[in-house]
User: Fold these one by one.
Assistant:
Number 1:
Amino acid sequence: VVVGLAPTGPAGPVVRPCPGRIRHFKI
Amino acid sequence: APPGLGLVYRELNCDDPETEEAAQVAMDYVNAHLLQGYKHILNQIDKVKVWPRRPTGELFELELDTLETICHVLDPTPVANCTVRQLTEHAVEGDCDFRLLKLDGQFAVLFANCDSSPDSAEDVRKVCPDCPLLAPLNDTRVVHAVEAALAAFNAQSNGSYYQIVEVSRAQLAPLPPSTYVEFAVAATDCVAKEVTDPAKCNLLAEKQYGFCKATLTEKFGGEDVAVTCTVFQTQPVVPQPQPDGNNVAVPPLAVDPAAPQPAPANLPAAVRVVGPLV
């Protein structure tokens, strides 16, 4: 029996709930 | 309250349509209650927390970043049509905290507090090394430019004498030595061509505001003044504010919805712009 970690694929895009999108420009 | 109940907030995405709806209500509230400076527009939703509210409803805690537009608060142009002040003009940002109650699908602002601050000189220099920075509004050159521009405007006016309401922004440029100013004005009961003592002139009951942009350029042996004013449609007469000590010429930026509001007569309501006059 071989015990090990399951292979992991490329991580998907991380969704950051906040802060939200910048509508104009950041100061 | 039983432990662990009712103390958990709902984490909402900052770009969730429900968050954006709350943010829009908050921004409309701010722009409707600003009595000086320029309208602000939403730039970024920083944080949102949604708390359950007993017996019904939800409490939204919002942190918003805003940007100054080029529309003065007395300008009836809808803020959606207002251009954001660009970095090269020395942009100004706002940092706002709100609490809104959502009941039956409707938002109501319970608390609002905004602080505004100009972009740093270093940041302006990065994008435009030669752009003039914002100048203090009490700088003697600024005060002089506003007075000269208003005098020039009144000298050309065939109607009312206009008084200064507020100096909104100013910039000093070295070459050629010049002062750029923006200021708000209001019509008085005096006739411009006949004024001898402006101190005796009174603002009209039916307020008529205007917004002026002027440049005073120093030159050998004198100065040139160029001024353009846009006069807005008259504001309807509304009841005066309550004598609660809140009727100050320069209102605070913090807005408490529970407190009586300052003079609503100073708020814009019209949607038609008349002008520019000069």
Number 2:
Amino acid sequence: MFEARVAQAEILKKILDSVRELVEQGNLDCSGTGISLQAMDSSHVSLVALLLKSEGFERYRCDRSINLGINMQSLGKIVKTAGNHDAITLSSEDKGDVLGLMFESTEQDKVSNYEIKLMDVDAEQLAIPVAEYSVCVRMPSAEFARITRDLSTIGDSVLISCTKDGVQFSTTGDTGSGSIVLRQSSSVDDEKKAVVIEVQEPISLSFATKFLVQFSKSAALNESVTLNLGDGVPLMVEYPMKEMGYVRFYLAPKLSN
Amino acid sequence: IPVQKNITSYFGNR
């Protein structure tokens, strides 16, 4: 028996919004420690890794580890029908073929029950090693969304160059070019609005703009985002979710051949 | 022309 209850549907809505355009289907791996999901986009250059820790749920029970193969669009559509403040309980029998969803309104005067058919999702599980990153940039997630959106009007690659002085996002396209530099915040009145740049070694790497734009749509998950860059490893973009866990996106760099 | 490797080439199978 698997059962997980979140107090507010809002967080699940935000999580599903952040991954469902990138990932069509995936396996929710449910175990005693929580729910995780690893899924690639259809072109296999990016990967989403989601972790929802059991402590982040109001109630959590998973007697034995199970894989729930889910169509993300279907799940997203159903969860969207819940009120933001509704409690949501996800459930599945050990050998069940459906994922049950129960929404309860705050006044407990409305209860909705849905079932989604489970599917066989053939997804390879990858071991993601802990990478040594050369650069870690923490910045407001809204700013990251704005920068990627603004540069996406010009070019299909964004070069991210980082030194101790700042981080530069630049692009070139048929119609011209553009670049935006962010400097490290000198005074930090508000942690969430700060730009913090940690540099072990300066680095410049190029990435597909359309994926950065996709990732940056997760801004609702956290006011801050971290970009982790290293030589020879994929970019890791992380949106932490307080006690709940995180959504991480990995993207292969564009390498000149 | 820049190339993007498959993301699986960076991560091992579990």
